[in-house]
Amino acid sequence: MGLYDDHAALWRALRSGDLIEKRWLDRFVAIARQAGPELLDLGCGTGEPIGRYLIERGCRITGVDGAAAQIETARLTFPEQVWITADMRDLPELGKFDGVLAWHSLFHLRPEDQRPLLARLGALCRPGAALMFTSGTSEGAEIGEFAGQPLYHGSLDKAEYRARLERAGFEVIAHQENDPACGGATVWLARKA
């Protein structure tokens, strides 16, 4: 997480524009609100703009990020929420939530690290809770770039994601690959049984 620590200000500046994720976030909140508005945001960064959007809709956020500088910014901006510096592969005891979001974060883990986390997500969700995350479109790894530095992205294939979600007690509500209205994100939205 050093890359996001080292470039926390740049990340915040890059994420200060339009919220292209709004349509997906609205669907996520609509499912989560059926159970209540306590949300876990894995890879929350500074809480901008996604955390702010969710907070403005009455959600309570517990944000987890491995980059301490990002978490410190979130704490200063949204002191009434809970912000935790932790690696999502080794989460502290957090309780249960009405929604779990891992937007552009889960795919920074190697596929072999995503598998046990996907299993754990079921235990973090109350019945009826929403789960939303982004992934790649096929199994493998790619190296992207952020601030001129290499940035890892890993993915399972869609059949494995679907099977692992079902084993964790989730029903897939929506899955869209390379959504052009959302910056080309591949999005999964599911509900806990």
UniProtKB/TrEMBL annotation:
It holds the Pfam family Methyltransf_25. InterPro entries: Methyltransf_25 (IPR041698), SAM-dependent_MTases_sf (IPR029063). Residues 40-128 form the Methyltransferase domain. The keyword rRNA processing does not apply. One of its GO terms (molecular function) is methyltransferase activity. Gene3D superfamilies: Vaccinia Virus protein VP39 (3.40.50.150). GO terms for biological process: methylation. Keywords: Methyltransferase, Transferase. This is Putative methyltransferase. It comes from Roseovarius nubinhibens (strain ATCC BAA-591 / DSM 15170 / ISM). The lineage of its organism: Bacteria, Pseudomonadati, Pseudomonadota, Alphaproteobacteria, Rhodobacterales.
